[in-house]
Fold this sequence. Notes:
Elements: H1 9-60, E1 64-68, E2 77-81, E3 92-94, E4 103-108, E5 135-139, E6 155-160, E7 169-173, E8 179-182
Antiparallel strand pairs: 1-2, 1-5, 2-3, 4-6, 6-7, 7-8
Amino acid sequence: MRKQRGVNLIELMIAVSVLGILLALAMPNFSRMVQDAQNRTAAESVLNGLQLARTEALRRNTPVRFSLTDKEGKVAWTVGCVNPNICSASIQERTPEEGGGNARLGVSKVALPKPLKADTFASALAAGAGLDEPGVVTFDSFGRVSAAAGTEVNRVDVTNAKTTDARRYVVTVGAGGQVRMCDPNSKLNGTPQGCT
Length: 196
């Protein structure tokens, strides 16, 4: 019969030291992964809000508005009918307290070039850019963007307040009502997630 042996103190200290070194090396990557996930969640939230507004406009056969409501660029939005006599002015909303707190939005009302150029999304919109008044997209009863050019949001950039290394996402809205989320660091010809 073999005698069983335990772990001595020196072996235990070596194992704990190695584990500590591995954790110290992995920590920056883990932090970035968390920030990337917050940005993606924020971009998906904006995408889902826009798609909900378009769907409700088609379903209710009336104009429905998607509004970004936080001037600092935190992820907060409301979807509601333009005419509150037909349906509620607040069908669904998201408050800034929901989800991660580091994702920030910036918007542009400038029409996107057709076709998109390679540098269209090269620089990020600053957090809160274009949100001095609520950023809105209004969908008509056919699911198209209904207001005159220059008044509606065409692009939403999602950046991170904690680190500039976090992955950036862009949500675009076409005049025909098409809503798309993309990664500006990926090329469209290489992956469907790419922007250009």
